[in-house]
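The instructor's notes for this session suggest beginning with a concrete chain rather than abstract definitions. Hand out the sequence below and ask the class to guess, before any prediction is shown, which regions might be ordered.
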Amino acid sequence: MENSSCDGSQKRRYPLLFYLGAFHSHFTFTSTLPFRQEAYQFMSGEHLSTHVDAPNHFYEGAWSVDEIPLDHLTAPAVMVDIREKAAQYKNSNVTLQDIEQWESDYGRIPDRSVVFMCSGWSDYYGVDKAAYWGNDQENTSDFHFPGFGNDAVTWLIENRDIVGVASDTASVEPGNILVIARFFPVHVTIGEHNVYGMENVKDSCELPVSGATVYVSPMKIVHGSGAPARVMAVWDDVNDEASGSRSTNEPFKMAAAILFCWIVSR
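After discussion, reveal the predicted structure:
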C-alpha cells in the first residue's frame, strides 16, 4: 500500500539563532585524482535546528540521547492544531482543555505516542526571524511563540504514557516561559519521566490528526543531552483523507523509513 509522507526536519543554515552551540561547514578535501569528492567539516550544538531534547537535558539521571530506546523513536503520531488561538496570542499553550477537546473530536490518544503541536510557526523558520522568535533583537528574555502547557504534558504522561512531545517552534515551552515561570517546567516534567522533546519541527500541520507513524532519528551522541534529528512520518492515504490533512507530499514505502531508522540508530 502506498503511503503519504512528511519530512519534519528543517534545513540547516548558517547563521541561525539558537540557545546553545555553534554550527559551520566548509570544504576540506582536495585531490589530483581523476574523480570528484565532496567532504565537509561539521560542528554543531546539540540543540540546533530540528533536534531532540533528551530527558537528561533538564533532569539529572534521566536517559541521554543515546539511551532513548528505539521503540520510543518509532511511535504513533498525534497532531494538536492550535493555529487559530496562536494567531491571536503568540505565547499560546497546548492546554489540558485542548487535549480533552481533541479526544472528544477524534477519540482516545494512543498510548506511547508522540504528540505534535501545530501552531503554523514553522512557516517562519529561515524566512522571518522576528516572527519566529517574537523579536528581532535576539533577546532571550523577550521571546514570543507557542508551546506546550505543563498541565497538558503532565496529564498526557500520567494518562496516555506518551513517549515524546514535538513543537514546530523553537521550544516545547511558550516563548515567554522564563518571564512567567523563571524556569522550564515542561522540560523538567518530560525529563523526569524519560519523555523526549522535539523542537523546530517542520510542517507538523501537514500531519493527519491521528493515524500517522513517526520515525525519529537523532544522532547517537554518547551522554548527549540532545542531538540534531531527521524526523519523518508516514500514513496511509485512506487515513489522510479521513483526517482532512492538507499534505501534498509524494507517497513512499514505509519499509524504506524503517530501514533508514535502523541504519542511523547503529
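Then share the key points. The two ends are 28 Å apart (CA to CA). The chain is about 25% helix and 20% strand.
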